[in-house]
Amino acid sequence: GNPLDAEPFNNPAIPWFQEARRLIGVKEVVGPGNNPEIIDWASDAGIGYDDDDIPWCGLFVAHCVSSTLTSEPLPGNPLGARQWQKFGAPAMPTPGAILVFWRGSRDGWKGHVGFYAGEEADAYHVLGGNQGNSVSIARMRRDRLLEARWPATAPILDAGPVEIATGETMFSTNEA
Question: Is 67 exposed, middle or buried (0-12, 13-18, 19+ CB in 10 A)?
Fold first, then answer.
């Protein structure tokens, strides 16, 4: 079965992660045109965004958080993946945690953000948006992790790491 169907991933105390799970499979429209659902996430969260060709991993996280934790402050410019390093409070990688990764160069400005969905020896499994142009789970090299964060308005549920058997899935290298 799907590991996300088991505890601790189906815990109602992490409603932002339940929203993320619900959206698995949502895809952007490649080329001209946009998926109105993705555009609606931005308008509902009060974020200026009008083209799903613009990287939307931060928008996906902002939607999942703002639609379920209405008093949780979003980081300034939530479209910028690395801005999520300023979100909430530091946390351990655990179900529901927001993981921020570098992309391109550790010292650069590009990044990727998504939700912890398990781990294996050399990878985190990340439930995120704009992974293969859709909401999906991707394997991200552990050495790309910059920080794990937790919403300030939610009680920390440290379920600890969730080991997932090593898959045949290739590492995600470009989440843009």
Answer: middle
Q: What is the 3-state secondary structure (H, E, C) of 129-157?
A: EEECCEEEEEEEEHHHEEEEEECCCCCCC
Q: What's phi and psi for 79, nearest 5 deg? A: -70, -25
What 3-state class would DSSP assign to 123? strand
> Secondary structure of the chain: what % helix, strand, coil (to 5)?
25, 25, 55
Q: What is the mean pLDDT of residues 31-47?
A: 93
In the three-class reduction of DSSP (H, G, I as helix; E, B as strand; rest coil), residue 36 is classed as helix
How many other CB atoms are found less than 10 A from the CB of residue 147? 18
Rg (CA), the chain: 15
For the full predicted model, state whether its pTM sits above 0.85: yes
Question: What CA–CA distance (Å, rounded) separates 62 from 139?
Answer: 21
Interhelix angle 57-66/36-45, rounded to 10 degrees, is 60
> Is 90:148 a contact under the CB 8 Å cutoff?
yes
**Closest by CA position to 128, among listed 45, 28, 30:** 28
Q: Return the SS3 of 6.
A: coil
Per-residue pLDDT band at 173 (split at 50, 70, 90)? low
